[in-house]
Amino acid sequence: MKPISVLIVDDEEELAFTLAERLGLRGFEAEGVTSGEEALDRIRKTGFDAVVLDVKMPGLGGIGVIRQMKSLRPAMPVVMITGHGCRESAEEGMQAGACRYLMKPVQIDSLVQIIREAVQATDAQP
Fold first, then answer.
1. Domain residues for 15?
2. DSSP per-residue string spanning 65-103
3. What is the dihedral of CA 39, 43, 47, 49, to 10 degrees?
4. pTM of the full structure
5. CATH number, position 111
6. What pLDDT digit, counting tens, does each position of 108-118 carry?
7. d(Cα 52, Cα 69) in Å, to the nearest integer?
């Protein structure tokens, strides 16, 4: 069975690359990027199984990314993360197509489980 591939998108470079590394240690193929524009470019070029996406980023933010991404890969699960939690952004993210919304700091074991469940649910769809 091939590893689950995940794109981590966060303007905090250390967080993006650390999460990617920690997921890699748990058997995922994970890559980190630091902007919405870079994320869309990678999604166009690579068949990721899931995306972990920060809500607030300079330039193209998480909500904009998810809207554009869903036109490219509508079934790909997206887990949104934020350090600035508010009900409106959570609702907007879920309406745009996110499957979950988590507050930073993200617990790696919870994130692993959420990603696995989201990918399995996507794979189970007809």
1. 5-124
2. HHHHHHHH-TT--EEEEESS--HHHHHHHHHHT-SEEEE
3. 50
4. 0.93
5. 3.40.50.2300
6. 999 999 999 99
7. 12
